[in-house]
């Protein structure tokens, strides 16, 4: 099977060379472009498996590129940007990015984020959690048809909101979901800023599915941004 093809979109030549050298050393296939227009063209012509995207490009803002790509492709997009504010991360993730890495970064962290994204991609391609009758992740099991949740074979009693939250995270396993995305999906757009309620329900859900809620295995918090279900 061919190695995944990574599209690198970065206008800074030094950073672009660092990324491509790292990918080459670890035997990933890649193509690299310096502008947003080139990025869209390469995404169409090369059909890459993952995009590594800088937001501060000379011609098109990276957020607009994400929105444009999302009109026709679910290709995973990892943002690599010097913009470090939570609002920047939230804007990128809400636009459709899958992950966000802040500059300066270590090559080890870049490779780790890439491995996580590729695992999620392989998982979703081979057995889409949204379309399967049963979702399994470690000791966690969701029987969608029956509306039941089990941990280590023991059935849990979840409230309707807790169940909807868990299913939403499971159907996006490995992907960071922003507070706004989650609250909009669970309660509707009029409640999309009710982060306090979301935190309460997430805390009760964790108490039920996690062995130690203070050291969660399944649901990871991204402070100021949102939550991610980890693939075990």
Automatic annotation (TrEMBL):
UniProt keyword annotations, A-Z: Cytoplasm, DNA-binding, Phosphoprotein, Transcription, Transcription regulation, Two-component regulatory system
GO MF annotation list: cis-regulatory region sequence-specific DNA binding; identical protein binding; phosphorelay response regulator activity
Main localisation: cytoplasm
Occurrences of domain Response regulatory (ranges): 5-118
Keyword Transcription recorded: yes
DNA-binding region: 132-231
Protein name: Stage 0 sporulation protein A homolog
Species this chain originates from: Caproicibacterium amylolyticum
